[in-house]
Amino acid sequence: MKETTPIEFTSLNEEGLLNLSKERLLSLSLPEMKAIQEYYQKISREPTDIEMETIAQTWSEHCKHKTFKGKIDYTEIRSGRHYRKVYDGLLNETVIQATQELSKRFCLSVFEDNAGIIALDKKWGVAFKVETHNHPSALEPYGGAGTGIGGVIRDILGVGLGAKPIANSDVFCVGEFGPDKNSFGSAANILPPERILTRVIDGVRDYGNRMGIPTCNGAVFFHKGYYANPLVFCGTVGLIPRDKIKKKVTSGELIVSIGGKTGRDGIHGATFSSAALEENLSSSLVQIGDAIVEKKAMEVILRAQKENLVSAITDCGAGGYSSAVGELASSSGAKVYLEKVPLKYVGLEPWEIWLSESQERMVLSLPKENLERFQEICQSEDVDCSILGEFTNTGRLELFYLGQIYCDLDLKFLHDGIPRVYKKALWREPEVEPLSVEFPHQAQTGDILKKLLAHPNIASKRWVIHQYDHEVQGRSIVKPFTGLEQSGPNDATVLKTHLDSWRGIALSNGINPLYGEIDPYWMAANNIDEALRNLVAVGGSIDACAILDNFCWGDVNDPEIMGGLVRASLACYDFSKIFGVPFISGKDSLNNTWKDREGNLFSIPATLLISAIGIIKDVRRAVTADFKGAGNWIALIGKTKEEMGGSHAAYVQGWEGGQVPKVEGKSAKNLMRTLSRAMAQGRVRSCHDLSEGGLGVTISEMCIGGGLGAKIDLSHCQVCPSQMQVPWEQLFLFSESSTRWLIELEPKKVNGVKKLFPADSFLLLGRVSKEPVLEVKSKQPLFKLKVQELKKNWESFSRSQE
Amino acid sequence: MSARALILKAAGTNCDGETAHALKISGAKPDTLPLNEILKNPAQIFNYSILVVPGGFSYGDDIAAGRILANELKYKLGDTLRKFVEDKKLVIGICNGFQVLTKAGLLPEDSNFEQTVTLAQNISGRFQCEWVAMKKEKSKARWLEDLPKNFELPIAHGEGYFVTKDRKTLNALEKNGQVIFRYAPKNPNGSMRAIAGICNKNGNVIGMMPHPERFVTQYQHPEWSRRKMEGDSVGLLFWKAAVHYAKGV
Predict the structure, then answer these.
(1) φ, ψ of residue B241 in degrees (nearest 5)
(2) Phi, psi of A120 (to 5 degrees)
(3) A292 touching chain B per CB within 8 A
(4) Angle, CA A641 vertex, CA A635 and CA A645 arms, to 5°
(5) CB B50 within 8 A of CB B59
(6) Rounded Cα–Cα distance for residues A290 and A747 (Å)
């Protein structure tokens, strides 16, 4: 064993081990360092630097999801009583277990490959994956976001034997705009959220548009808690033939790398993403992307897949070759000759070549007899292709550089030698304060509505959406914008999967950290409900859909923050089961924290993004959210309760307390199914879900989309307020109770549709009117606002960004 | 006999799939070939009667949109293309393809392949993807006659601001009937005289920023769910007209 950079390791004491972990940016804990030490003591030698780095990368939170797979000692305190439960692998016992118990036949590949896959039809599957790229986007938002999207596209290219990307979805959480919105201490060298968001959008635009993949779905959430640690979620959907889903590496096959060259960029990305953001982190930790290199690699992969040339493929993401080859070789073995790696420039140490996170690289396993044809394809597409070594059956990872061996690791130890993480989690049931309002409460209902429409979380995202090419590939059927002059929003996007068929998919998402500040359990339930009701709103069905989880959490060494993670996971299990909708893939990004100048550690708000994908049998049956015709009836589906906790009305008015919306699982499921049925029969002219800002915002958006007005009368409506500080009409208009939609019905269809729903979940509110005015009355008139004025408020934020 | 169409693909081309589909359902037999494959035997172009340079970001649009691919066409395929055009065969450049054809001097047409017009950065300074209203002009591209006078198509570009070298060039375009489409009433990118597409003097080479291949069924229109739209979509009419013309040469 050559030891160019020998590490004195086996004799280190605890302090020495921790220092080494810190100095080399390994992000390994003491028990982990000890386990490695034990391994080397047993084989009686010192590790090489490349071995140390390989282990650290493989064992990083980013790659191993240690917390979610670890042991968690959870205590819940309810009404003064303690309930304790130990979880032996939180993810397995919640999210994954729900999927296993549901055991849906349309699930073709779940939680094993680079993306989850469900069946589209007898021949095709659709793969979906959502990733986060948070820390890089905080340091260098343009590169961070670009490589975030580049990375998730590679996940799709690297699922099965390669899928064709057909859609991107992007969700961002950033700090609030304007001065002094950071209440979490003054973190140094932090880019202001205005700058972060602009550059993140630029990054997604420049990468996604160049790849020729439509970015057609997404969200932006502003909250002061993301000031120093923004969240960037990037998702991609791909099409894959069902007989190309399984990969298998055989000993003797070539390890081939295609795409980008290797440089020093992004070394330690995997370990860095698992640590707190603090001053003096270099933005060279962030990789630099080149979409055209990836686009060309994509063409090669898809052609090779069609011609059945490769037997396995995966992408180089966090950890670079170390992770990609390590994964493919996990049940076989590999010999890699590092001098064969094409470099951007000379002077890289062998460990740097191995760990570099340079972008646009894919690793595949190629039977020798297919090499010639594969190289031909690479040539015609102008793609670099190099043979790095071959897969073996030794169970060892052997790395050579110019004839000398630099690494000889037992793959079993590398993948399974990591000690289990043990964490304590605590949850105290929050005491619900009744909704309280500054007296005397004089806010006019119409003014609250205008404020809500102008709030960045609710307002039009036109300036973002129009920068993304959401039409490329010609699949788009229900677009981000709808209605007259495309001025209103839609709930979800609908795409044709094949240009010569009417089958398609719908994509939607749900995210709302405000509920999580009250109870992460109900946040998770609401986010699932939101993603699903959005899907239903465009014509999807919960019986043909799947969801993805992306947990972004703060400091999970804090038992109370960890307690929230357990709560959210439990809700994922409960509501996945109740709705009968399986999780097929997910990702967690923990330790989203930063340190201020005084060294205080801050955590982001607990955040869960739920992304849903549904199969649409005939996209021509899809429904959009814009009002279609004057004289049609407007009906509210679902029950409205005094659920103002975490609502945007409370947020913009400064109201405190209130109930967090609770999802009534069984009846929610029935409502979704019933509405889907009515829509499939073509009985609903338009449909829009109620979410942030409640009924008031939803009806305004439908008016804006249709260029039409509405007259509604609330005098027969009811809401059971806990107290009457706020007029009940305001509660009714702005409550964020879950599982609700507004639907538009032609007069002759009202009775038929009404009969489908339980009496307490179908309320006729009024009619669409020709005059573009929104008029709301109760026993007395409440307000009358021109749709033009609603629109002006709703578009004001976007205009300020254009 | 069906018309054969060649879709030219370079690194960064990304509208080749929907373009092939549009040609297919319009009655053509499309082949998509990487430029490297075409360069191996340039004469194979003569097997086709339609050549499409589709949208995308050829070579990442480094330097300027379409510049590198334009130079490749000019210097590696120049004579072949000139012959193809002289034969009255159809050359269609869409979006990035339009940018390529202007930079290669094929549009509005110059005997020395000199560039006289360009597509500069949108006056908004950013990429714009939206559906825009347009009108058809009476032009030398007579084969477009069956298209309606007014219609909508999607645009998706950062560099679509049509600019001519000088006023003379602009006036000549108008006078010669080389303006085929204009944005109307809204001019989304600042183009001179709202020009969205032009052709050469014979009308068999055209370039346009909007994407007809993205509107080959009425269900791709953003308002399909609110107004009944009968018959072929405008994009389909466009491609059918191209195929009809190509069958005649």
Answers:
(1) -65, -40
(2) -95, -50
(3) yes
(4) 125
(5) no
(6) 55
Question: What number of helices (H) and strands (E) belong to chain B?
Answer: 7, 11
Q: Is A16 helix (H, G, I), strand (E, B) or coil?
A: helix
On whether any CB of chain B is under 8 Å from the CB of A144, the answer is: no
DSSP state of A70: S
Q: What is the Cα–Cα distance from B24 to B183, expressed in whole angstroms? A: 28
**Two tokens, residue A301:** 């992969």
Token pair, residue A511, equals: 């995210």
> Do A213 and B12 touch, CB atoms closer than 8 A?
no
Q: What is the DSSP letter of A6?
A: B
> How do the residues of chain B divide into helix, strand and coil, expressed in percent and rounded to 5?
35, 25, 40
The predicted complex's ipTM stands at 0.95
CA-closest candidate to residue B216, choices B32, B20, B49: B20
Q: What's the CA gap between A140 and A461, in Å, rounded?
A: 23
Domain with residue B166: its CATH number is 3.40.50.880
Q: How many CB pairs under 8 A join A and B?
A: 113
- List of chain B residues whose C-beta atoms are within 8 Å of the C-beta of residue A384: none
Rounded Cα gap, residues B203 and B143, in angstroms? 8
Question: Residue A638 gets which letter from DSSP?
Answer: S
Minimum distance, in Å, between the CA of residue A467 and any CA atom of chain B: 5
Q: Measured between beta carbons, which residues in chain A are less than 8 angstroms from residue B55?
A: 472
- Asked whether the beta carbons of A722 and A435 are under 8 A apart, the reply is yes
**How far is Cα A136 from Cα A277, in angstroms, rounded to an integer?**
10
User: What tokens were used for B226?
Assistant: 């609110």
| Closest residue to B226, CB basis, from A299, A481, A628 | A628
Domain extent, residue B167, equals: 4-247
Asked if residue A737 lies in contact with residue A669, where contact means CB atoms within 8 angstroms, the answer is no
Residue with tokens 């646009």: A360
The answer to whether A127 touches A237, Cβ cutoff 8 Å, is yes
- pLDDT per residue over A424-473, tens digit each? 999 999 888 888 877 667 779 999 999 999 999 999 999 999 999 999 99
Dihedral over Cα of A365, A370, A373, A375: its sign: positive
pLDDT digits (tens, 9 = 90+) for B167-226: 999 999 999 999 999 999 999 999 999 999 999 999 999 999 999 999 999 999 999 999
